[in-house]
Amino acid sequence: MSRSYRSDLRARQARSTRWSVVEAAAALFVARGYDRTTLDAVAEESGVSRRTVVNAVGGKAALLKLAWDWTLVGDDEPTPMADRPDVVAIRTSRDPEESLRLWARVVTETGSRAAALGRVLVAAADADDEAAALLATAETQRLEGARAFAQHLASLDALAVPVDRAAEAFWALSSGAVHRSLVIDRGWSTEEFAVWLEAQAAASTRPTPSVPR
């Protein structure tokens, strides 16, 4: 019992340290940018040594990846996005309108959490190969999620366009750039954005009118 307690305590302490380090790194990335954030600065901000930062998480690329992953889901639990209750609710809904509304809410909430760090990731990808690889992976995963949503609507007979076409539209609509442009840059409320997003997603399930020649 004593060994088990000590092991659990160490695990909780390690998790707490990792959380503090990643939280500090995320704040510095947003405030200073990826290039200007150093491991020493992260260590100072989180109140630990540089060695502890490296042992707890790794280098700057690892810090950015973990910060990004946690920002997307909102915590450090190991549950994948696809298994989160809000996403499961979309997948199990049998009502197309409800599915579109739930999807728009999830995209809006995720965008709100990830807006600031997303801008850092895009900027970092222009100059850093590891950041570029992280961004490419994130985009691939987002497209996979969009395709899964399109397939879900197709299973409800709520899709009048090919699955790939709808998936590409949902992928574009769920882009962090769209959220940043309307909510952050133009001052839309998250409620306004969610309603607009739902309407655009619904329109994307229907064929586009033919362009006159």
UniProtKB/TrEMBL annotation:
DNA-binding region: 38-57
Taxonomic source organism: Actinomycetospora termitidis
Short name of any one Pfam family annotated for the protein: TetR_N
PANTHER family attached to this UniProt entry: HTH-TYPE TRANSCRIPTIONAL DUAL REGULATOR CECR, HTH-TYPE TRANSCRIPTIONAL REGULATOR RUTR
Domain HTH tetR-type: 15-75
UniProt entry keywords in alphabetical sequence: DNA-binding
This protein's name: Helix-turn-helix domain-containing protein
